[in-house]
Design a protein that fits this description.
CATH class: Alpha Beta
Bound molecules: ligand 9MR
Largest sheet: 8 strands, parallel, barrel
Structural class: alpha/beta
Strand order of the largest sheet: 1-2-3-4-5-6-8-10
Radius of gyration: 20 Å
Number of helices: 13
Shape: globular
Low-confidence stretches: 1-5, 16-22
Strand content: 15-25%
Mean pLDDT: 94
Distance between the termini: 42 Å
Order of helices and strands: HHEHEHHEHHEHEHEEHEEHEHEH
Number of domains: 1
């Protein structure tokens, strides 16, 4: 159903003729600052007029939240289904937005036929190379950057168990990050123009995990493994997050010659029994957004900031937390911009 009272802020701005300069929309601020500002999207929501209008007016980049994952593209053995991913790409083309692809290799969300298929390492190696090649060639020239490998390390920085690593793996089990390297080499062969990213959670600041990510990427760069960047997911649940370690981590990663993208930013809040966050928490949330955006835009190598959805009407956090947390995004459930939105526009506008 259409939102009966969407906040068409862009229309108001467009019609504003008063002497007072209107504040910029997020997309305008991003374009002026030459930074990519994106969001995860779900193709089945593009028919919601308020959803698609907010998306196209406020962002210059999109990433399919689930539509390019194995379980969507490969729900049937032996076939590729690009319909959902294509919907996102068509929307982006129509609205001059860039598309990030997510993701080609992950231990999660693989279809049952694959996870329970008892394939040999040789078969898995062939399946993964074919998947990477077919998907990247299908989107060649349309997806400018890919999360090639997602969340391959555990909280201590060790390579996680995965069908692609050691269960039984593609033939490189017990060889640490070698299977990750192999995936990047296959990705580069498939689409030499695409930017290739390693995307990870909970390695945003300085800790065992981010040290391991840094060591892996330094090794890859030293040995000319084709990799262009690292995605720092940034799912935040602490309102008092210290962003100094995040800035330091961005600095050491970009010093390797890698781009950093903030890929999945959201800041979840506790909700009361009627599903609302406290106003004071929304203000503290805005400060978290502000400081994260600042940490990115102050480093020239941090080239994209993406939120994991944009309206509190639709977010993975609700189901994940059984409704106890939410309100994590830039717009409320009626598409009204929140204090976090204003903070983000302000910080992007101040980009040096
Ligand atoms: O938001 C995504 C949710 O809709 C999916 O059910 C889930 C499993 O595929 O993945 C969520 O997105 C995740 C992303 O792909 C990788 N980083 C963590 C994200 C939140 O769980």
């Amino acid at each position: 159903m259409l939102n009966p009272c969407p906040n068409f802020r862009w229309l108001v701005l467009f019609l504003t003729t008063t002497a007072a300069a209107p504040s910029l929309l997020l997309r305008q601020a991003a374009d002026q600052a030459q930074v990519l500002v994106g969001t995860a999207v779900r193709p089945y929501l593009l028919s919601d007029a308020a959803y698609s209008a907010t998306l196209s007016h406020e962002f210059n980049m999109v990433e399919p939240e689930d539509a390019m994952k194995w379980w969507t593209v490969r729900h049937t053995a032996g076939a590729f289904d690009f319909r959902e991913g294509d919907q996102v790409v068509q929307f982006a083309l129509a609205h001059r937005m860039k598309v990030r692809g997510h993701c080609l290799v992950w231990d999660h969300n693989n279809p049952d036929w694959l996870a329970q298929g008892h394939f040999t390492p040789t078969q898995l190696s062939q399946l993964l190379q074919e998947h990477i090649a077919t998907v990247m060639k299908h989107y060649s020239g349309q997806v400018f950057a890919w999360d090639v490998v997602n969340e391959a390390l555990d909280e201590n920085g060790h390579v996680k168990n995965s069908p692609w690593y050691n269960q039984p793996g593609v033939g490189l089990s017990d060889k640490g990050t070698a299977y990750i390297e192999q995936a990047f080499r296959w990705a580069h062969e498939a689409d030499p123009q695409a930017l290739l990213f390693y995307n990870e959670a909970e390695g945003e600041g300085l800790n065992h995990k981010s040290d391991a990510i840094y060591a892996m990427l330094k090794d890859f760069k030293q040995r000319s493994v084709p990799i262009d960047g690292v995605g720092l997911q940034m799912h935040v649940s602490q309102p008092d997050l210290d962003t100094a370690p995040i800035a330091a981590n961005i600095a050491r990663l970009t010093a390797l010659g890698l781009q950093v993208h903030i890929t999945e930013l959201d800041v979840s809040l506790p909700l009361d029994s009627s599903g609302h966050a406290q106003h004071s928490d929304l203000l503290r949330q805005a400060e978290v957004y502000r400081r994260i955006v600042r940490a990115c835009v102050q480093n020239r190598g941090c080239t994209a900031i993406q939120t994991w959805g944009f309206t509190d009407k639709y977010s993975w956090i609700g189901s994940h937390s059984h409704g106890t947390r939410g309100a994590a995004l830039l717009f409320d459930r009626t598409y009204k911009p929140k204090p976090a939105y204003d903070a983000m526009v302000e910080e992007i506008s101040r980009k040096p």
